[in-house]
Amino acid sequence: MLSLKERVKALHTLPPMPNTASNILNLRSIKDVRVEQITAVIEKDPVLVAQIISYANSAFFGQTGSVRSLKDAIFRVLGVDTVTNMALALSVGSTFHIPPDGPIGAKSIWRSSIYTAALMQRLSMLMPWGERPNPGTAYLVGLLHNIGLFVIGHLFTDEYVYFNDYLTKNSEEDILVSGKKILGITHVKIGKMVMLMWNMPDELIAATVSPGESEMYAEHKKYADLLIIVKSLLAPHGLAFANSNSELPFDLLEKLNLEEEDVILAADDVLSEGDIIKQLTKQMCA
Fold it and tell me: What mean pLDDT value characterizes the chain?
């Protein structure tokens, strides 16, 4: 087993951020970025375009295969923010190749991430207009909040196999406890390190920080609060990693001006789209 110091050092051997993701991050920082600039970057990756079009055609948005191009997906269904953030997450995810099966296999991670992203976006849009965070960014936080698990599988192959097997046999144990026991560090902290190394947006990092660090990212605290709510809704269905308390945090609902009934109905809507999410998960693991 590697020491904690060796594991942290190994993080610096990660491949650089994919060009597509790097270019998208640059575009996100431009205030008046044009749609043509975004499509020019994304269209260089045909697989990425196909995944976005497939998502736009899903029953989530009442489409029936009528979206045929990236511009259709942007203008008719998803909007610029969601397409940009989805492309960023998928491009980052494509960097890591891990086994598909098991509690922390690629299929489980992506399935959880897609459910989380969809529900994060739905709940953000239920918040009062002047108080809601960016729905597209909320979606991005959901898609990438488990990036640390991909990094473990990519860098620490032997320990990942043991970790995956351990969780299969000890399914009731909290994954944060297991990770600390096996790796000496949690996947959440690893995810934070990678996001900092790659200069990812502060909104994403805010969802990975410990309570003692939260003031540093207070401006983006709503994303972290939304993530806690979403995990509590998905945990009873086996779709949440870490901090998976199934008790709905009413204090956070009140803080974000969300109604319990609306939140539960939104979760039911997302959970009802299992077939669609299964297909999207398959595409992301391809």
Answer: 87
